[in-house]
Amino acid sequence: MKVKELYDKVVNGIIISDIELQRNIVYDADKQAMVIDSLYKGIPLPAFYLWQREDGKLEVLDGKQRIEAIKKFKQGNLLYEGKSWKAYAYESDLQQVVDNTELTMIVCSGDEKKKREIFKRINTLGVALSKFEVLNGLYHGEYIEGLNYYFANDANVRKVLPNATVDRGDNKYHLLEYIYYVRNNSVFPKRGELDDYVQQHKDESFNDDVKKIKPYISFIRDVFGDASKIGNVLKFKLAVKYIKDRAIWLQHKDAICKDCNAFIKSEGYKLSPSREDDIEAMIVGIVGNLRVDSKRLFTSDDKAQLLSTQKKNEQGLYKCARCHQHFEADELTIDHIKPWSKGGRTVLSNAQLLCRACNSEKGNKE
């Protein structure tokens, strides 16, 4: 069936894509545009599965997302390379090519039980490629082969990035993200940038990146070991940032593991809006022989107790300790006088009431 015929039948209600079995639209604009790109460039789309009803109409069992992309584009609700369907009427052969592209249709029929079984199998037997499997398929070459060899033969990298139960390259993909992070001034890749990096190095040796990444893998393995509950991404960020302090971090590795694990289990960690910064502050304090308080945040009870000691003005408002303006109780936050990250304890003698603006400006300053 050609695209134009499919579209006309959808618009006229002969093909029905919005049935109760189908999920909502999940393709974003980029994926929808890729459907149009495939049609225009002659890249085959997967087959569409349709169900023949007794009244002659066809229900879509598989293909709703692709149909929605076609419909949105032809109706002017989707741009392809920055242009609408109507714009292509005068500028290229796109409309003709897309309309005349033939799609594979598989039409099924039978009872309701069979219909649901077909739908179930369509959606359970297929397995989407992992991000690494896509990279491997697109850009397999000396670089990817070197990555595979390194991961298979280096015990440290396997400890730092342990294999999943079914290895589909997830950890290799993370390793590539870390390599990109080191190569690009501590910035993780945005969409498409890792693909570009691997494509660029496709036929090059992986050895240069092994040399680049090994010191950080060793840092993570030696400092954090197997017991640390700190997330892998944060471990890697810390390794890159503090690689020159490796020796002193090693001296304090037991305290780092013990204190950070205890903090990660605490209620303060769960409630904190700056968990990564908190963990970094704890470790910097430990290696600098400055131990931070295991209690990270003041509680609502702490705030109530502090409020009870404060004087109100004539309007019943409380003063912000920083800007000295007056606010309702719920407009104030309770914060450390001496910052927690610099050894300030989470006790009322080190507490102050700040308005939200002052709390944001204060940051890590006293």
Word description of this protein:
There is one protein chain. With 366 residues, the chain is α/β, with parallel strands linked by helices. It folds into four domains: 3-125, no CATH class; 131-245, no CATH class; 252-292, no CATH class; 298-366, Orthogonal Bundle (DNA Binding (I), subunit A), CATH 1.10.30. Helix content is 51%, strand content 8%. It has a four-stranded mixed beta sheet with strand order 1-3-2-4. Strands 5-6 form a two-stranded antiparallel sheet. Helix 2 packs across helix 3 (64-74), helix 12 crosses helix 13 (232-241) and helix 15 (253-265) packs antiparallel against helix 17 (275-287). The longest helix is centred in the middle third of the chain and has 18 residues, at 207-224. It is extended and about 80 Å long. The chain starts with a helix and ends with a helix. 23% of the residues are buried. The mean pLDDT is 89.
Please describe the topology of this protein:
Elements: H1 3-11, E1 15-16, H2 29-41, E2 48-52, E3 58-62, H3 64-74, H4 88-91, H5 94-100, E4 105-108, H6 112-125, H7 131-139, H8 142-153, H9 155-160, H10 170-183, H11 193-200, H12 207-224, H13 232-241, H14 246-251, H15 253-265, H16 267-271, H17 275-287, H18 300-307, E5 318-319, E6 326-327, E7 332-336, E8 351-355, H19 356-362
Parallel strand pairs: 1-3, 2-4
Antiparallel strand pairs: 2-3, 5-6, 7-8
Helix pairs in contact: 2-3, 12-13, 15-17
